[in-house]
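Dear Dr. H.,

I hope your travels went smoothly. While you were away I took the liberty of generating a structure for the chain from your last submission, since the lab meeting agenda had it listed for discussion. I wanted you to have the full record in hand beforehand rather than looking at slides cold. The sequence, exactly as received, is reproduced here:
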Amino acid sequence: VEALMHTRYDFSCALPTLKMWLNHDEVVLVDVREEGEQPLVNEFPHIKIPLGSLGEKAAAFQGQRVVLFCKSGARSEKGAAMLRQQGIDALHIVLDLNDKDSLKALVHER
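The corresponding predicted structure, in token form, is as follows:
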């Protein structure tokens, strides 16, 4: 019971925090959706690693802050939990991938 009380289950990242990190190159942003999923996202810099492949690429993120996203937040939350179990500073964020203006605003200051 004691371990459960100290376990962090919410690995979410706030939008203003993500914007600040992106504008200062302090984060690696990862799209964990499968190849070909719509909508395509090219409004900000990120890399694509489907959730099923994330575990085998986890070592590449050691020492970095990682924020994952997908369409609904379910896969990105699972991915963040998996990376955190491996000692990686990982969070997830829920983004409206259809709201292109908001996505562009993430890196407007760059």
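Two observations you may find useful: The longest helix spans residues 74-85. The longest strand covers residues 65-69.

With kind regards,
E. W.
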